[in-house]
Amino acid sequence: MSERESAQSQTPAQLPKSDVSPWVGLVGLLTLLAYILFARSFPEISAALGYPNDLGRLSGPYSALLAMVLTGGVMAAYSVFVEKVHRNPTTGIDWDNRRAVGDIVDISITKLAGLWATWFIIGGLYCLGRWYWDGQYLFAMQVLGAAIVPLVVLSVPYVLWIDRVLVNPRDHAWHFGAMLVGREAYDMEQVKKHWRSWIIKGFFSAFMISILPIGFATVVDTQTQEIWNNPVLLGVFLFEILFVIDVQIGTVGYLLTMRPLDAHIRSGNPFLAGWIAAFFCYPPLAWGVLGNIINYEVNTADWAYWLADYPALLWLWAGWLVFLTGVYAWATVAFGIRFSNLTYRGVLTNGPYRYTRHPAYVSKNLFWWCATMPFLVTSDSLTDAIRNTAFIMIVSAIYYWRARTEEAHLLAEDPKYREYYDWMQENGVITSRLAKALHWANPRKGQGRMEPQPAE
């Protein structure tokens, strides 16, 4: 048998079944859009019901927060009551084998010590980070500050309840608590897994909550009467709606990492390269790295400026950018309540992941290239054009780096992802055609798979 035939014989005949149902994200999307419509129509609704309205449209930050809570609540309810995800074996829960409280209370106390210490340390890190107390992050600090007391109180009955039915109640949090208490044997590898998960949650939850109000206010307050005949205004409005969808559902994913929802973090990315690549793309590092050091928008205009004299092309370009933003939002919606960076929470093979392994990264980078047009500059400086183009290429390379480290993580964790990887290598709309055009082999079938070094 030839090498090519051997490689083809190892490729799965069918796309592996996704661990995430597309319906969860769709239910969340419909809930979010319904609330946005309600928030925009609140003055008219109030008038129709005969109530005075001093609030106007509900575009404030707490309305954005309520939208996220409602969206997440409906998605969680659908997951439990319709899809019954709490019965999935991957939850690690055996509902039919409940222990007595007395049998697990010592375990739960140790786990609570680990959880509370984790929250205290993360809170201390928030206090040390000056950027958390200025600008957009102030809202996130207010929300998290108000949530900490209810979280501490509710964690007691929750942990006692969940430990009664967990197959292995001595999870990552327990190992960290055991290390702190110093009374029982603990596994340092489990402690590392605990902190990988909580650093991800702490870092990204604050960031996602901080940006909830920004686009939401724009979407709710925008007057749409004048935008329908203007491709630029219409395009920007649709961009904002799609970004709001991405942020709202993405935030739900970071907050609902719970075993009864089968949405827990099974592992954080163990590769240092993955963490570096991801953190380059978010504040505060992004403000220095992407914002200043490799800023690709010096003396640029944008697509609307360069295409202003070509109305037909302006409409076409707006449609293309809306399509790219739509793919980006779809990639988040497809995760349902399991979206988050740097984590393994099951394997997703439907939605846009049916066509490419990294639809969000592909669409986001294409959007930046096509919207910014960094190779065109208002200064008529060839140096500016070369610098901008080189720097946006570096940004795209960072996202390629992120993609490779994420693949290395998932390939090591789950045989289903390995099947998905092999299937996409042969059948993916982007991957297979590009690989065949460049005569690339599937690195999983040889020795070419990247092996980053684990983070300590």
Description:
The protein is an all-alpha fold and 456 residues long. It has a domain at 94-166 and 168-211. It is 64% helix and 1% strand. It has helices at 3-10, 22-40, 42-49, 61-81, 101-128, 137-165, 172-181, 188-221, 231-255, 272-279, 285-293, 303-306, 311-333, 359-372, 382-413, 415-427, 431-438, and strands spanning 267-268, 343-344. The protein has a two-stranded antiparallel ribbon. α2 (22-40) runs parallel beside α8, α10 (272-279) packs across α15 (382-413) and α15 crosses α16. The longest helix is centred in the middle third of the chain and has 34 residues, at 188-221. The protein is globular.
What secondary-structure arrangement, pairings included, does this model have?
Layout (H helix, E strand, L loop, with lengths): L2 H8 L11 H19 L1 H8 L11 H21 L19 H28 L8 H29 L6 H10 L6 H34 L9 H25 L11 E2 L3 H8 L5 H9 L9 H4 L4 H23 L9 E2 L14 H14 L9 H32 L1 H13 L3 H8 L18
Secondary structure: number of strands: 2
Helix content: 55-70%
Report how far apart the termini are.
43 Å
Biggest sheet, spatial arrangement of strands: 1-2
Instruction: Tell me the structural class.
Output: mainly alpha
The number of helical elements comes to 17
Whole-number average pLDDT?
92
Sheet of most strands? 2 strands, antiparallel
Q: State which percent range the strand residues make up.
A: under 5%
Order of helices and strands: HHHHHHHHHEHHHHEHHHH
**Mass-distribution shape:** globular
Poorly predicted runs: 1-8, 446-456
Q: Cα-atom Rg, whole angstroms? A: 24 Å
